[in-house]
Amino acid sequence: MTTIAVTDDPRNLFNLTGKTALVTGASQGLGRRFAWTLARAGAHVLISARSTDKLQSLQEEIEGFGGKATPVTLDVRDRDSIRKAIGQIESTSPIDVLVNNAGVAIVKAPERYRDEDWDAVYETNLRGPWVLAQSVIQHRVADGRECSIINIASVLGIRPLGHIPPYAATKAGIINLGRDLCVDLASKGIRINAIAPGYFETEMNREWLKTEAG
Question: Nearest 5°: phi and psi at 54?
Answer without folding.
Answer: -75, -10
